[in-house]
Amino acid sequence: NEHCLKNFDLAEYRQVLSDLSIQIYQQLIKIAEGVLQPMIVTAVLENESIQGLSGVKPMGYRKRSSSRGDSENAYSLEAIIRQLNTFLSIMYDQGLDPEIIQQAIKQLFYMINAVALNNLLLRKDVCS
């Protein structure tokens, strides 16, 4: 049986396996982005853990945070870091290549930065 596997030619399946691996990577990123996206605005832009900024919120920030009222949608930077660590652990546990893991984490950081910047640019009280 081992002899058959050693002599088996995978050349005709190379493109199929390549396409499948790309599809799996895209699904991984899509799921990770879906989990992180709702956390970004409150964790990055409305976070009060930065010293000296807690009392210096512009008026628009106060309206948004107080109108929310419930703290179930309020995320912290630590929550994003914990979630990224969870993704990292899962990828390592599944035996992903370190270069793929690095690319995925880098892509998630780009997404976090893009969402935060886009949200800042849409706020009239911040951009004048």
TrEMBL record:
<feature type="domain" description="Dilute">
    <location>
        <begin position="1"/>
        <end position="128"/>
    </location>
</feature>
<dbReference type="InterPro" id="IPR052072">
    <property type="entry name" value="Vascular_dev_regulator"/>
</dbReference>
<protein>
    <recommendedName>
        <fullName>Dilute domain-containing protein</fullName>
    </recommendedName>
</protein>
<dbReference type="GO" id="GO:0051020">
    <property type="term" value="F:GTPase binding"/>
</dbReference>
<dbReference type="InterPro" id="IPR002710">
    <property type="entry name" value="Dilute_dom"/>
</dbReference>
